[in-house]
Write a structure and sequence with these properties.
By secondary structure, this protein is an alpha+beta fold. It has three helices and two strands. A hairpin with a 2-residue loop joins strand 1 and strand 2.
């Protein structure tokens, strides 16, 4: 998947993603993509790819069995109880 393609910027700063790249990634006309600046340059990815990358990152930092949603709900309940007691 580390294929290299050549593209050119037009006068308005737009770049056309080569057909082979669009086909391989299943990109269609009008579809939004995520553009990230990295140390290596620009990373263009689909929303799904970006979401998966974020999920993988989070999985490394959240211990197994921990539910952030449950922790957030518990925190909100404590805050609500404290506000009600004031």
């Amino acid at each position: 998947m580390n294929e290299v393609y050549r593209a050119k910027l037009n006068d308005e700063g737009r770049i056309v993603i080569p057909f082979a790249c669009r086909k391989q990634l299943g990109l269609t006309a009008g579809q939004e993509v995520m553009v990230t600046i990295t140390e290596q340059g620009l990373l263009i990815s689909t929303f799904g790819q970006s979401l998966k990358r974020l999920q993988n990152w989070a999985a490394k930092h959240i211990p197994p069995g921990v539910s952030l949603a449950d922790e957030l709900i518990a925190d909100r309940r404590i805050e609500a109880a404290q506000e009600a007691g004031e």
